[in-house]
Specification:
Elements (H helix, E strand, L loop, with lengths): L13 H11 L2 E4 L6 E7 L24 E7 L2 E10 L4 E8 L2 E3 L4 E2 L4 E11 L10 E9 L29 E8 L7 E13 L8 E13 L6 E4 L3 H6 L29 H11 L8 H4 L18 H8 L17 E3 L6 H4 L5 H22 L3 E3 L10 H14 L4 E5 L15 E5 L7 H10 L3 E5 L18 H13 L4 E4 L22 E7 L2 E6 L24 E2 H23 L1 H8 L23 H15 L2
Parallel strand pairs: 3-12, 13-19, 14-15, 15-16, 16-17, 17-18, 18-19
Antiparallel strand pairs: 1-2, 2-4, 4-10, 5-11, 6-7, 6-11, 8-9, 8-10, 9-22, 11-12, 20-21
Length: 633
């Protein structure tokens, strides 16, 4: 199917948006004496601000709220927002209680598969390069149910602060509801309710609202993770911010060294919560500490080159099914990065001395042996990032070193075609390519790489081209993050790389702490004497322990974001399109992708050769629904 909207007119008319929103979301008024409030639904990538009002229709709550209608494949997570706007007085103690969802056949999706969050705003003071909007942006997703099972507002002293779950008078407060469909769910239409309760400022109960929910579970599954992913994380920041013992540093203070204790390596505690979050969002982390941690702070294995073999942990990390070392399911990560987080200096340069070479050889051979033939195909060595031309010989020598001591492990390098003068590097198996230059470099760089049967991964970051190219930024449209999965298919990328989800520092290279809840600006640079900013670059999640927002559980998993939800949606979209291509051919699949990713424009002054992406969330919903209909024929 071909889009009817020309790419020369990306702006959608207000009327078209209103019609589409009416189809996807409803609005109604809940009322009781003195505590009226308006509420409506929005798709996951809609940005709802305090000033947002619904473009849809309204009805009286006693007559019944419009149903929240959504669909998902088996193994898919699908989110919706509920926007609440009090019209007479502030309401607090807002609670959204899901029921079980039951199909006509009796099949049930338990209420435990539905999670609820409060959308938290971060304040943008310095807009990202190419953008101009200042003020609050919706991003962090504060869980209504804390990691210890208590409601948001709970305090360790037994008291509570229900005002943390509130909506102010004449201000819109968005809440996020996530439905996670198991891969084993039976297809069918499941129905249930979301019940909203709250308390008015004067202490009277606000009206209880029951929202009907209709969730269609598709017959196909997207549980398989065919697109490889590798997202970085700073474990020191994760551990440092997860405990009251570390306290909060003043601005621009360096964090103290933090030890990862044995109990936090792989169990259902702090690091385990981070791993669960990665797995739930379909991204593999760039650390293998769970499999190889041996009691040292940040450098497993220790200098004695001894490794603690933990096959059961490795299985839980890389396989699927029921976990054996922890409650719940295995993580099912599809890549393994070497060297893992915090690797010692002798891995950074194996050729600096005979000792370095000997230790690095033992390091790679031990890790390769630990992985074995089962998991070695998922492994890649990525010890060098964006090397200059002067490091070319070093890269090629390192690649040969890895192939010698870890046969079967692929050698990965991120590099720029121009820097390398469009000459491929010997021994490199996977090239990390900047997404914004992919199409510029297609004929002279990407095509030769493909001809040589080497892999290509794409990655994004802050850039002066971020107005054209998606870069996971707070003040970009949320569809910028979702579009990454579509670009991955458009480019036929083998994987998706990102340098960090929690670079909680004020700028690149800084070791000082930046509170991401207070300051989203994570990248600062200059170009021709002018500032270049990026909000949220490398900073996709938030500390899970943050008492100021009611997050009192130490060691809690990270607080997620609307951007991470959009990334997962894009990865699920990629699987939709991939299955379409397998079944009906890539030509058919490409036609659907073309409805999201436009044609490549001619490069010109002030513009790169980069295909634009649709920014309206409803466009993604439409195309995804159309693909699902084809897959279910």
């Amino acid at each position: 199917m071909r889009s009817t909207t020309p790419w020369t007119n990306l702006a959608r008319t207000a009327a078209a948006v209103a019609v589409l929103v009416t189809a996807l979301a409803g609005a109604t008024t809940a009322s009781a004496a003195g505590s009226d409030y308006l509420y409506w639904y929005a798709v996951a990538q809609t940005k709802v601000y305090p000033t947002t009002v619904t473009p849809g229709w309204m009805a009286s709550a006693p007559e019944g709220a419009p149903a929240m209608i959504l669909s998902a494949a088996r193994g898919e997570a699908e989110g919706r927002q509920i926007a609440i706007r009090p019209s007479s007085q502030t309401i607090s103690d807002i609670w959204i209680e899901p029921s079980d969802l039951v199909a006509d056949t009796g099949a049930t999706l338990p209420a435990s598969r539905v999670e609820t969050f409060k959308v938290h705003y971060v304040n943008v003071t310095y807009p990202s390069y190419g953008y101009t909007r200042k003020g609050v942006e919706p991003d962090a997703l504060i869980p209504l149910t804390l990691a210890n099972g208590e409601r948001l507002g709970w305090k360790p002293d037994g008291t509570s602060t229900p005002g943390l779950r509130a909506a102010a008078l004449n201000a819109t407060a968005p809440y996020y509801v996530l439905f996670s469909v198991p891969a084993t769910a039976a297809p069918g239409v499941y129905t249930g309710t979301l019940t909203i309760t709250a308390t008015a400022l004067d202490g009277t109960p606000a009206p209880e609202v029951k929202i009907p929910v209709s969730l269609k579970v598709r017959s196909f599954s997207v549980a398989a993770r065919n697109l490889k992913t590798s997202f970085g994380a700073n474990l020191q920041w994760a551990m440092y911010t997860g405990s009251a013992d570390h306290k909060w540093l003043p601005p621009n203070a360096d964090p103290p060294p933090t030890r990862v204790a044995e109990r936090t390596t792989f169990k259902a505690d702090q690091l385990g919560g981070w791993l669960e979050y990665f797995s739930e969002h379909r991204v593999s982390p760039q650390f293998m500490l769970p499999a190889w941690e041996n009691g040292s702070d940040w450098a497993p294995p220790a200098d004695n080159n001894r490794m603690i073999a933990r096959r059961a942990y490795l299985d839980d990390y890389l396989s699927t099914g029921a976990a054996t070392t922890r409650p719940g399911s295995r993580f099912g990560f599809n890549t393994v990065k070497m060297p893992e987080y915090g690797a010692p200096s002798w891995v950074a340069d194996p050729f600096a001395s005979t000792s370095n070479s000997s230790k690095a050889a033992a390091y790679y051979s031990s890790m390769s042996a630990e992985l074995g033939s089962t998991y070695r195909p998922r492994a890649y060595a990525y010890p060098i990032d964006e090397p200059p031309a002067s490091k070319r010989a070093f890269v090629e020598r390192y690649a040969a070193f890895v192939h010698r001591y870890a046969p079967g492990v692929k050698f990965f390098v991120t590099t720029d075609a121009v820097t390398q003068n469009y000459r491929l590097l010997k021994g490199v198996d996977i090239y990390g390519q900047k997404l914004h230059f992919y199409f510029r470099d297609w004929s002279r760089w990407i095509k030769p790489i493909r001809t040589a049967k080497k892999g290509v991964w794409i990655y994004s970051h802050a850039t002066t081209w971020q107005k054209q190219a998606p870069a996971y930024l707070v003040d970009q449209p949320l569809t910028a993050s979702r579009s990454q999965g579509w670009y991955a298919y458009r480019t036929r990328a083998d994987g998706l790389l990102y340098f960090s989800v929690n670079a909680w520092r004020p700028k690149t290279g800084s070791a000082t702490y930046r509170d991401p809840y207070v300051d989203p600006l994570s990248f600062r640079s200059t170009l021709n004497g002018k500032p270049v900013y990026a909000n949220g670059d490398g900073s996709l999640v938030y500390p899970g322990y943050y008492p100021r927002l009611g997050l009192h559980v130490q060691g809690a998993p990270p607080v997620g974001s609307l951007r991470m939800e959009a990334i997962r949606d894009g990865l699920e979209d990629h699987e939709y399109v991939r299955q379409l291509g397998v079944r009906y051919g890539v030509t058919v699949a490409d036609k659907y992708v073309a409805r999201i990713i436009g044609p490549v424009p001619t490069q010109a002054a002030g513009r790169i050769a980069f295909p634009p992406y649709r920014t309206a969330p409803v466009d993604y919903e439409r195309v995804r629904s159309d693909i699902a209909a084809v897959l279910e024929r």
